[in-house]
Design goal:
By secondary structure, this protein is α/β, with parallel strands linked by helices. 30% of the residues lie in helices and 24% in strands.
């Protein structure tokens, strides 16, 4: 008798396929298997057939045999439900979602052991002085033959001889040696009354072991991390796993250090910088349930935790939780769904929660815990706006006199300052003074950005780089290229002119590209080896530097230009977060916001510290426009190297749009980034009322169309980028 199994194989172009289960092989939903596909062998996961329809119904007699079962725990049911939900919600192939769960091929090669040796206590029938010496010195030691020989001061042959006699025996050792267990009682902080109340609620939620999303809404420096650490401690006591999601890989190192201070050992870190062996070890420990606490960027979300008891999304408002390639998912939202399927609490921690999250609280779907004040003696910083029209910087400069004075004063007090400008490189635009030639990326609708430190022009969209030319490629005049506008490198030059003795650090993804680099920066800041930091959004998040007291925002208007629906909200969040780096300890902080429109409501809200009024107005505007979270959007992006082909398909998609009540389709129009990586792009925007299953509509609509392989159609549900 043969049985068949439905399998999602790791090929996103194909739907689920059926296979025959050979006699003696046991599979159940979730089992990870190796399946044949043409001449190849692919990894796949057995699925419930009734939950995953196959479009290739094949008769029993034509089925191919599964090849093997992978030596790894099966994908648990809650994760299977999450894969289905994510694929359906974001209109992605299930295989593409599942691939994120099976994120280490090495881990799927099964348990790997090496053979080590140790003494058994038996006395060899023929004892020699060398054997005696070997056994005496080896004692309790265990290791490779070579290692034991070295330790005992005898040759390998002597050790091997002892193995033959049975005085020394082989032991198989897992190369995936276990992670140390965090100790929930290692260093328990004394919490303030507010903190203790919030912690108690979170601990209770962990004990209840039911789905419970909670917004932990606390001002910067209020101790949100300390508070959710108590929930993690409780999960550890229960022997259940915790997943902590952070927005940036650059933040993991400081987190690991803090975690270790609290729990005596670092958590398991999951990020793109891991070596293959580290990934493998982490994956297997996560899948076996041994890894009690895992911290990572959004890719840690789909790992096969055996026994999840708590999910924390820190800095939950961060837009970097939105994945913009492949499966276009939002890790914050998927984390909440994972909590639902796993039946565990989900903590969203933020000082500046997203309007979407606030709305869930308002509807009573999420609980809210507030930490209204900074911990201990620390006060929130003072915030002033500097009107760039009334108090402009000197010609060719970007730092206004009032901010210069504030930094002078900080330097006199021996304190640190931070200048924030969300623009990498030296200048956003380079042009020729003589002929006006501008340097544009050959692959994208974007200017090339000058990076003076590495003497390159770079495109921030596709990564194209070229050397800065000696003369203008258009008019061939020499020395006529001028930089327009500031980037962080240019601000760093200005800082060097103003404060020649100050030790500077430029913090961007160009300088901090790994957790190790981030750790180095943190150590230099904490050690007082840096006086002035110039940074992009990378420095707005999470960091805690007690001696940093002055923060200057070079261009607060920068984020407001794009005109997308979250521009004001994002500006508010970003500036609040960067302001939140100032005065986090006993020394008071001062923040200066340089702007051309000090009367704009977002600047007023920042200066007055009136987040509630700002959010109320923003929320009302969204409600009126039926924008998220009240209505919903989905973007359809059509791209091709062939401009006409992309244009044609975009129009055809529009023509075939179904008439659905409560749905409106805008476009197609050339995308603001009309060309990206050599592909021409057209966008359609679907606007739908909340209750409409817009994914279902789009699935039917696009499913009925075909387009040539050179055209790509990507759907972005709940888009964050409108470029
Ligand atoms: P947030 O995440 O809300 O910005 P943090 O958790 O980073 O705040 O806390 C800010 C600083 O205050 C950190 O250095 C933290 O260690 C310290 N802190 C907060 N709460 C306590 C506490 N109860 N005991 C000791 N230190 C605390
Ligand atoms: Zn480019």
């Amino acid at each position: 008798m043969s049985s068949r199994a439905r399998v999602i194989i790791m090929n996103s172009a194909l739907g689920p396929l059926d296979y025959r289960v050979p006699e003696g092989m046991i599979v159940a939903p979730g089992t990870i298997v190796i399946a044949p596909l043409g001449p190849r062998q692919l990894i796949g996961v057995v699925w419930e057939a009734d939950r995953m329809p196959s479009d290739a119904e094949v008769g029993d007699n034509r089925l191919r045999n599964l090849i093997a079962v992978v030596d790894a725990p099966p994908i648990p049911a809650p994760l299977r439900r999450l894969v289905e939900w994510t694929a359906t919600y974001y209109l992605a192939p299930p295989a593409a979602v599942l691939r994120m769960a099976l994120a280490s091929t090495s881990a799927l090669e099964g348990a790997r052991t090496i053979t080590e040796y140790r003494a058994t206590g038996a006395v060899p029938p023929r004892m020699t002085p060398q054997r005696q010496q070997a056994l005496d010195r080896i004692g309790e030691r265990q290791g490779l033959i070579r290692e034991l020989g070295l330790a005992a001061g005898v040759s390998d042959a002597v050790v091997r001889g002892l193995v033959k006699t049975g005085a020394i025996e082989p032991v198989d050792v897992d190369i995936d040696n276990p992670f140390a267990r965090p100790d929930p009682n290692h260093h328990v902080p004394a919490l303030s009354a507010d903190q203790a109340a919030a912690a108690a609620a979170l601990v209770a939620a962990v004990d209840t072991a039911a789905f419970a999303p909670t917004l932990l809404d606390g001002v910067t420096g209020s101790g949100k991390t300390e508070v959710y650490f108590e929930a993690i401690a409780e999960a550890i006591r229960q022997g259940r796993q915790t997943l902590v999601l952070l927005p940036e890989i650059a933040l993991t190192q400081p987190f690991l250090t803090r975690f270790e201070a609290r729990f005596g050992t670092a958590p398991v870190a999951w990020h793109s910088d891991l070596r293959q062996s580290q990934r493998r070890r982490a994956w297997r420990a996560i899948a076996s349930g041994d890894a009690l606490v895992t911290v990572g960027a959004r890719s840690a979300l789909f790992l096969p935790y055996a026994n999840l008891g708590l999910i924390v999304v820190d800095e939950a408002h961060e837009t970097s939780f939105k994945q913009e390639e492949g499966v276009h998912y939002h890790a914050r939202d998927v984390a909440v769904m994972r909590g639902l399927f796993e039946a565990c609490p989900v903590i969203l921690a933020s000082a500046t929660p997203a309007i979407e999250t606030r709305q869930q609280v308002a509807l009573g779907r999420y609980a809210e815990l507030k930490l209204p004040g900074r911990y201990g003696a620390a006060q929130l910083p003072t915030i002033e706006a500097i009107d760039l029209i009334a108090e402009p910087p000197d010609r060719g400069r970007w730092i206004a006199p009032r901010l210069v004075k504030a930094i002078d004063a900080a330097r006199e007090r021996g304190e640190q300052a931070l200048l924030f400008l969300n623009r990498r490189g030296y200048a956003p635009l380079t042009l020729c003074r003589t002929c006006g030639h501008r340097f544009q990326c050959p692959n994208c609708t974007a200017w090339m950005v000058e990076h003076r430190l590495v003497r390159r022009l770079a495109c921030h969209h596709c990564g194209h780089v070229e050397p800065v030319p000696e003369k203008c490629p258009e008019c061939a005049n020499e020395d006529t290229l001028v930089a327009c506008g500031p980037g962080v490198e240019r601000i760093a030059d200005e800082v060097a002119l103003l404060w020649p003795d100050a030790r500077r650090a430029v913090v961007t993804s160009d300088t901090i590209w790994s957790p190790a680099k981030a750790a180095e920066f943190v150590a230099r800041m904490e050690g007082g080896d840096i006086d002035i930091v110039i940074g992009t959004q990378l420095v707005t998040k999470g960091y805690h530097f007690p001696n940093l007291t002055v923060v200057g925002v070079i261009d607060a208007d920068l984020g407001l230009g794009g005109g997308d629906l979250r521009a004001a909200e994002r500006t508010f969040q970003q500036i609040s977060q960067v302001a939140g780096r100032a005065g986090r300890s006993i020394k008071p902080g001062h923040v200066y916001i340089q702007t051309h429109s000090p009367q704009a409501s977002v600047m007023q809200a920042l200066v007055k510290g009136d987040a509630d009024a700002f959010y109320a107005a923003e929320t009302e505007a969204r409600r009126e426009a039926d924008a998220p979270p009240f209505g919903r959007y989905a973007a359809i992006v059509v791209s091709s190297e062939d401009k006409n082909a992309a244009d044609d398909i975009a129009r055809e998609i529009k023509r075939s749009a179904p008439e659905v009540e409560g749905m409106y389709v805008y476009g197609p129009a050339p995308a603001p980034l009309a060309m990206l990586r050599g592909r021409h792009r057209y966008r359609l925007l679907v606007h739908a009322r909340r209750a409409l299953d817009v994914q279902e509509v789009i699935r039917g609509w696009l499913g009925a169309l075909t387009w040539p392989p050179k055209v790509r159609v990507a759907v972005d549900v709940d888009p964050y980028s409108f470029l």
